[in-house]
Design a protein that fits this description.
With 71 residues, this protein is mainly beta. It has a single domain (2-69), classed as Phosphorylase Kinase, domain 1 (2-Layer Sandwich). The chain has 1 helix and 5 strands. The chain has a 5-stranded antiparallel β-sheet with strand order 1-5-4-3-2, covered by helices on one side. A hairpin with a 2-residue loop joins strand 2 (21-28) and strand 3 (31-38). The two termini are 15 Å apart.
Length: 71
């Protein structure tokens, strides 16, 4: 599942609501990501510079939450 947010606070609140726990913070040059886990489920919150929505030309930081099963 992939979910996009335009605000870091909203993304982190959503992760807390799903009861994920923080595992690791990864940052290399422009790439930033945080890894979370909950049992056999994994989640990664990373950033990307892109259009804020489909209806405007405004660009900014987008927070992307990706989840997957460990197995």
């Amino acid at each position: 599942m992939i979910k996009k947010f335009t605000n870091k606070q909203q993304a982190e609140e959503y992760i807390r609501a799903l009861k994920y726990s923080f595992v690791e913070d990864i940052s290399y040059k422009n790439t930033r990501a945080k890894l979370y886990r909950k049992g056999g489920l994994r989640a990664m919150l990373n950033t990307e510079y892109d259009y804020l929505n489909n209806y405007s030309m405004d660009m900014g930081t987008i927070y992307i939450l990706s989840t997957w099963n460990r197995y």
